[in-house]
Amino acid sequence: MRPFYCFLITLLLTACAPYSNKKQTTLPPANAAHPLTVLAFGSCNSQERDQPLWLPILKNKPQLWVWLGDNIYGDTDDMQVMAAKYQKQLAEPNYRKLMATTPMIGTWDDHDFGHDNAGKEYPQKAESQRLFWDFMQEPQDSPLRQQDGVYNAHTYGPPGRQVKIILLDSRTHRDSLLRQNGRYVPNFNGDLLGETQWQWLEQELKNSSAQFNIIGNGIQVIQEESGGEKWANFPTARKRIFDLIARTQARGVILLSGDRHVAELAKITWPGISYPVYDLTSSGLTHSLGGGLKEGMPNRYRVGKVHDKLNFGLLRFDWGPEKKTVSLEIKGRHNKSHQLVKVEYLTAASGINPKPSSGTE
């Protein structure tokens, strides 16, 4: 029988003192013997622009870097052009420093998939997938290269101190959308993942022994009000993913997303899930809205404020004997911290599933 857990959440909305005030030490790589303690992630990175955040990212000594899409801006049907853009990114000096010290995993979004807002109709998706795996330095004989889509999963740490990272492909099988008056019209019959990926995701969650299950993809899952890309454009698929989390009783699910050129945090409660689910969006490694917020960017699920400057995301795991804690953080230029959420994962003493603690926000 699975043990029961609850969450205690505290939120700091104002600027925090950066972790860099403390002396940094080199961390062991996350693997079966060493638990994951520092994960960094980001999205929306143009190979044609200045890239000022790689050195601040390095200051945090991440054991893992996670790409969440728009890793380059390809936007082409010409695969030679796409390959050249990947090569330009691989040659960026400070990105090479991160590559030399930090394992990398990832997924894609529209601009590195092929075109802005593209889905399964994109004609070069098979060749684009090959270039994506080349960029990620995936071995040529990897089974990932044989599947239809770039979804992948990885588990880090020994039993009792495990993090599973599940990265979804919300492009290869994404159905079409109609846009009216600058907003997408919900497609209730459409899908984002395709049935094979849905079945894979169910097995990954059902069979997970991890204390935290991190699900990342290119677009926001919780957000409903934006007129742009989001899971809510496919309401049936959005409901399905939350129902799947509830049905599999996956522990400690946290969502990561990109795409929006801002950073924000959203939180939702869902029937059958005994804890609130967070979606931490980090978007804008090289370009962000920077004060150009459209329509005030409404999001009724938002916790705190939108950060509209360049940013990257951090997850810090603390594997204490009595509680497992993860801090969700947004940082920007000069390693400055802008928002922090701390989630404590507490083992219940009794066999009754406790209600989530309300905490303070």
From TrEMBL:
Name the top EC class: hydrolase
Pfam families for this protein = PhoD
EC numbers on record = 3.1.3.1
Q: Where is the PhoD-like phosphatase metallophosphatase domain?
A: 84-270
Please provide the record's keywords in A-Z order.
Answer: Hydrolase, Signal
Q: Does the keyword Hydrolase apply?
A: yes
- Which is an annotated GO molecular function term of this record? alkaline phosphatase activity
What domain of life? Bacteria
Segment forming the signal sequence: 1-22
PANTHER family tied to this protein: CALCINEURIN-LIKE METALLO-PHOSPHOESTERASE SUPERFAMILY PROTEIN
Q: What is this protein called?
A: Alkaline phosphatase
What is the native source organism of this protein? Adhaeribacter pallidiroseus
